[in-house]
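Inputs:
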Amino acid sequence: MRTYSVLLTALAVVALLAALSLVTWRQARALEALRDLDAVQRALSLVEAERAELHRRIQTLESRGHVVPSARERLGMRTPSAGEIILLEGEVP
Amino acid sequence: MKPGPRRTPVLDRPPVRRRSLLVLWLLAGGFLLFRTTELQIVQGQEWRALAEQQHRARGEVAAPRGSILDRSGIPLALSHEAFRIGVAPHELKDRDQVSAQLMEVLGLTSAQARRLTHSDRRWVQLPDRYPPVAREALQGTQGVYVERELRRSYPHSDLARGILGAVVDENGSGGIEQELEPFLRGVPGSRIVARDSEGRAIPGESWVVAAPVPGGDVVLTLDRDLQEIAREALENALEETGARGGDLIVTDPRSGEILAMVSLKDGSANNLGGINTPYEPGSTLKSFTVASLLRMDRVSMADSVDTADGRWRVAGRTITDVSAVGKVSLAHALRVSSNVGIARVAERLSPEEQFEGLRDFGFGVPTGIQLPGEASGTLRNPRAWSRQSPASLAIGYEVAVTPLQMTMAYGALANGGLLMEPRILRELRSPDGRVLERFEPRVVRRVVDPVVAEEVNQALVEAVEDGTGTRARLASFAVAGKSGTSRATGPGGGYEVGAYYSSFVGFFPADDPQLVVFVKLDRPRGVYYGGATAAPVTRATMEAVLAARRPPLDRRALAAIARSQEEARVEAVRQEQEAQRVARGEAPNVGGSPPLVLASTPSTARTVSALSPERSPDPLWEARPRPRIHVAGGVDAAQGVNGGDAISGAAREGGPPGVQGNGPASGSKPVVGLPDLSGLSPRTAARRLHAAGLVVEWEGQGLVRSTRPAPGALLNRGDTVRVISDGGRSRR
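Outputs:
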C-alpha cells in the first residue's frame, strides 16, 4: 500500500514536470517563431524602403532639372525654338 | 537501544484536537477562497489593468500620410520610414567598438562618434533620421536604441513648395498639406507590446489592437515637367533682369486647371505670391476695359479715339502716352497700349458698369482655389471712387489683383468668354488607389459672348504681332497677349521711386488656345517694360512646353494648326517667287501656264490671272506716299505709345535689325506680290501678310473687303499694307 502511494506520487511529479516542460518548450518555440517573424518584417520594411529610394532616384534622374543640364553639358544640346519644332503629321487623324 | 516514547496516531488523538485542526483548516481554506474571489472577481479588473500596465505597454502606430501626386501620378510629396538613433553611453560594453560601428554605419566622423559613445550624459540623441539599412546594422547593439518614425519627403525639393506646403510637427503647414490635412493625415492605430521583468520589449510580443488607417492620396492638376519649365524660366528671368522676385502661372483656359505655378521672392519659393500678393496690374487690365465696353455695346473695335498729342487731363490728373499716335481705332489703341485712348473710351461706361465689368472678370473677389491664404485683391465700390478713379481703373491703376485672378481673367478671353474656377485638385484617392472624388471643371459665369472675346483676342494677337508684345511671338503659332508695366508700392503703401512690376499674359495658339501663361517680374533692373522683360519669359516658357516630352497639350490640334499655317506660308512663298519672276520681266503666268493659286485652303481658294505692276494699280495707292519705314522686325517705332509699354521691347532695345525702304523700287530687298485677301478673316489675312514680311494696318473690323495697295501690287518686305474690313463683327 505504501509502495503504491509512493509510485503514485512519483508519477504525479513526473507528469507535472512533463507538462511544465511541454509548456516551456512550446513557449520557447513560439518566441523563436515570433523572432523570425520580426526579422522577416524588418527585412520587408528594408526592401520596401530600398524600393522607395530607388523610385525616388528614378524620378530625380528622369526630371527635367537633371536631364536638361546634362544634355546641355554632355551632349551640347539646347531647347529648340518654336520654329524648329515639327509636329508630325502622323499625330493628326 | 532504549525505545522512545510512543507517538499517538492522529486518529487516536483526542477528538477536540482533531476538530480544532479541522476548523482551522476550514477557516484557512475559507479565507483563501474568499480572498481569491475578492482578487479575481471583485477586484479582478483593477488588478488585471495593473498587471497589464506593468507587463504591457500601449503604443501608437503612426498612420502613413497620403502622397501628393502630379497629374501623371508622379509623387511630389510622400511619406517614408526613417529611424532616429539614440545612444545610452553608460550601457555600452565596448565603447570603441561601438564608436567604430557608428562611423561605418552612419557615416559619422571619428570625433562625432566619440562624442556619442564617450559622453558622460545618460542619453544622447542623433539629430538626423536614417534609412532602414542603418537600423538593420545597429539592431542588437547594446546601448544603441533605434526608433521608427514616418518622415515626409519632397522628391523634387522645393519645386512646388508654395503649392504643397510642408509638414511641421506632424501637422500640415501651408499649401495642400494644410488645406487637406484631415484627408492626408489618416488615423493612427494602436498596439500593445509585452515587456519582460526588466521592462524590455519582448521580440515579437506585439499586438496591433487597432490598425492605422493610411491617409488618402491627392492628385493635383500640376504637371511636373511644366512646373520645372516654369521654375527654370522664372529663375533665368530673375537672373537676367535682376528682379527681386516674380510669379509664373500656366493654366489650361478650357478647364481652369493650373498646370504650373511658381512664385519666387528673394530666392525663396515658400510664399505663394501668385495667390496671396495682389499688385496693380497696369496695362494688362486694359483688355477687360475694352471687353466691358464691347459687351455693353458702347463701342466697336473700329471706332476711332483721338489721343491727340498723347496727353489728356481728366479730373485734375494728366494721363500720358510715351508717344502720340493721334486718332486711332480702339483696336489700335489696345494694340499699342495707349493710356489716353483707353481711358478716354472708358468714359462711355458709368462707374457702376465699369465696376461690374471688372468684377465679372473675377477681380476683387477670391477665385476659390483650394489653397489657403488666397487674397481677394482690391476693387473698390464705385461709391468710394474719386473723380479720377474711372480713368485710373481703365488703365489698371487703383485696383489690385493677384496673378491668379489675372490669369483666370485672360483664360476667360481665351476660351470664348467663360470665367472658369481655377483648379489645383484633380482627384482624391483612397490609399488603395480608388478614386473617391474627382473635381470637374466649373464655370463661374459667362462674362462676355464669344464674339466680344474674339474681337479682343484679335487685338491681342496684333499686340503680339505688331504691338507691345512682339517679344512673346512664336515662329510656329500665333500668340495673343498683353504686356503691362506698373509702379511698385513700397512698405509704406506709396509708390517706390524707380520700382516697377513688369508683366505679360499670353495664350497660345491664338486660334484655339490651350495654354495661358502669366509672367510677372518684381522690380526688374534696367529695362523694366513688360514687353521687354516679361514677354520673352512667356515665349521661353511656351517654347519649352512645345519641346517637352509629354506636354499637357492637344498635339493633334496643334499639328492641324501648324499644317494650315505651313500651307499658308508655302503659298506666300510661291506668290513671292511668282512676283519676282514678273518683276524680272519674264513672261507672266498666263495662257498655257497654270493659274496662280493665292489662297491655301479650299474654302477660300481663288484663282486669278498672273500679276503685273501695270495691271494692279490702285488710285489710292498711287496717290498716297510710299509705305512708312518700319523698324525692329516690323514694329513701327512711331506707333509705340502707352505710358508703360509705349515702345515695344524689341524697338527700344534694338531688337532685330531694322529694315529701311521706300517702296518697291528701293534697294535690293526681295519683292513681294500682294495677294488678294478679300473675304478672309482678319486673323488669316494678317498671318499671310506677316508670313510675306509685310506690316499690317487695320481699318475697320470683320472680314477683309479690300487692301491698299490693291492685290497684285509689288511691295518690299517691311512695307505696310492697309487692310480694309467690312465694319461688321468678325467671324472665325
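Remarks. The mean pLDDT of chain A is 85. The CA atoms of residues 33 and 76 of chain A lie 59 Å apart.
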